[in-house]
Amino acid sequence: MGSAESRPNPPPLSRTRSEQVQVPQALLEADLTSIPRSSTISRSSGLSSRRGSDKNKRRDVVKVSSSLVEGVRRKGVKYQTSKEIVQTVLEKLIEEYPEWNEELGEVCRALNQESDLLSNSVDSLKLEQLFEHLIALTEDEQQRGWSCADDTAEITSMLTDLTCLLKNANPNVVVAVLQRLKYEPLLTLVQYYQLESRPALKKQVLEVLYESMLIKPDPTCSILLTSRLPVQLATDIQGTKVLNQLEMQCNVFCAVLSYPNVMPRSHYDQLDDRFITHLLTELEATDTPHDPEGQLPNNFLKCVLSLNLHYKDLNHNKVCSVLKSRTTLQPHGDAASSFNRTDNLTAYFPGNHDSVSKMMTDMLGSPDTAELFFTNDVKVLIEVLHRNVIDRAEGDTDRLYYLRLLDLVLSNTEYQDHHHMKGDILELLKQVKEEESTDKESQSFASRIIKKHKCLST
Fold first, then answer.
1. CA 206 to CA 250: how far, in whole Å?
2. How far is CA 421 from its chain centroid?
3. What does the DSSP 8-state code read for residue 372?
4. d(CA 95, CA 164)
5. Of the candidates 45, 65, 78, which has an alpha carbon nearest to the alpha carbon of residue 110?
6. What is the DSSP string of 222-237?
7. Distance from C-alpha of 331 to C-alpha of 14, rounded to nearest angstrom
8. What pTM, to 2 d.p., does this model score?
9. Cα atoms found within 13 Å of the Cα of residue 259, Cβ hemisphere only
């Protein structure tokens, strides 16, 4: 790289308004005083004026990129957005001033050097300090058992800071800190949640746990599922009458249980018939004083759906056992509607199992629970299944699933009372059976349905 004297100066910056580079206001106002003076970009000398080894130069470039991002973040912008703002501005400057390409290009590349950014992260230090503070609070048995000072404001501030960091920090920094601490802060939060009696603080703890799951579902959800949290939440859900607290309790409960992990055996005993009955009763409740707009039934439905994901054997499914004891279930139509829209009500994370499809399969798997569906719901379901089989290509695993569900509808509901779409169903099954396809399993199953259900041919 040539010296400053031999390199031509960039074009003058006195442009017309229409020609000026549009720099985000957050970056213009950012406090960049933390950037080492020798690391700042100068038009006369650039980064090439630094002396020293390549290693030191790379470290200084990373400091520049990190400081730029942190400067934007100080204006309340999330980490990822701040990073994109800085990258956009740098790329625009390179486009306008090609002679800066080498220096600014290094800064651009440094934005994605996560290992270096972690070592320079202020968030890492703040997270560890907040977690240490949390541990101290949890271990303060005297304060928890017999409060000698009002520490509500202090704990509220600490939990607020922790939530903001989880929402706005570099998620890789959060994961690195949790991994370094072997995810112990999560269990500390669960312990503190159990010990704390103040509803507002308990709600804040749940917000922290919820944000932690969104950042790193695995192993966060697994750790929380095997803890005492689901059982404690089940107790709290049954006793809480405050809308926003109940919503948060249900959300965390569903998020923990909806991720595909194995639930501890002891939880099956404690998330018992009484809890399931409470959820189903609240689902049917009307004119609830603490829920004037009727927002809670959907939350209770999600709790039922997420818990049902953990019962693999229909013969030992507590959710279905409780359902069998009920003569009607008003909200089952909500599940049917969600199935029609192909909505997964508990899709908190990518790769979640489809809780609605699982519930529909389990309920239709026995005449005792299938009879809870109204006739109109059954007719709509038949139409949905007919359409979905047609829309699925040969070999699509979903097509076989819909054929199996159609068989359950024909077997366990009062189909013989209305024979809805009988001709269309028979024609579809014959088409699948006779098609030239490698999907032998679907063909065989379609043939079996025709033989099993003689009513389709008469």
1. 10
2. 39
3. T
4. 35
5. 65
6. HHHHTSSHHHHHHHHH
7. 67
8. 0.77
9. 24
DSSP string of 419-452, one letter each residue:
-TTHHHHHHHHHHHHHS--S-HHHHHHHHHHHHH
Smallest CA-to-CA distance from 232 within 197, 204, 262 is with 197
Residue 198: CA count within 13 A, CB half-sphere = 14
φ, ψ at 294 (rounded to 5°): 65, 40
Q: What is the rounded distance in angstroms from the CA atom of residue 322 to the CA atom of residue 300? A: 15
Q: Please tell me the distance from the alpha carbon of residue 168 to that of residue 118, in angstroms, as a whole number.
A: 15
Q: Cis (ω within 30 of 0) for the bond into 171?
A: no
Which amino acid, 166?
L
Distance CA 66, CA 62 (A): 6
Token pair 């920094």: residue: 173
CB 13 within 8 A of CB 43: no
Cα–Cα distance measured from residue 184 to residue 226, given in angstroms and rounded to the nearest whole number? 13
Residue 333 · residue 374 · CB < 8 Å: yes
Structure tokens at 221: 């959800």
What is the token pair recorded at 440? Answer: 């032998």
- Cβ atoms of 159 and 202 within 8 Å: the answer is no
Instruction: Tell me how far apart the alpha carbons of residues 71 and 77 are, in angstroms, rounded to a whole number.
Output: 10
C-alpha count within 13 angstroms, C-beta hemisphere, residue 246: 20
Cβ proximity of 243 and 296 under 8 Å: yes
C-alpha radius of gyration, the chain, whole number: 30
- C-beta atoms surrounding 318 within 10 Å: 18
Q: Which residue has the tokens 């030191």?
A: 56
Write down the residue that tokens 């509607």 correspond to: 337
Q: What is the full per-residue pLDDT of the chain (458 aa) written as tens digits?
A: 444 444 445 444 333 333 444 445 554 454 444 444 334 444 444 444 444 455 566 667 777 777 788 788 777 787 778 888 888 888 888 888 888 888 888 888 877 776 554 555 778 889 999 999 888 888 875 555 555 567 889 999 999 999 999 998 888 889 999 999 999 999 999 999 999 999 999 999 999 999 999 999 999 999 999 999 999 999 999 999 899 999 999 999 999 999 888 899 999 999 999 999 999 988 887 777 778 777 888 899 999 999 999 999 999 999 999 998 886 665 455 555 655 555 677 777 776 778 888 999 999 999 999 988 888 889 989 999 999 999 988 878 889 999 999 999 999 999 989 999 999 999 999 999 988 777 889 999 999 999 999 888 87
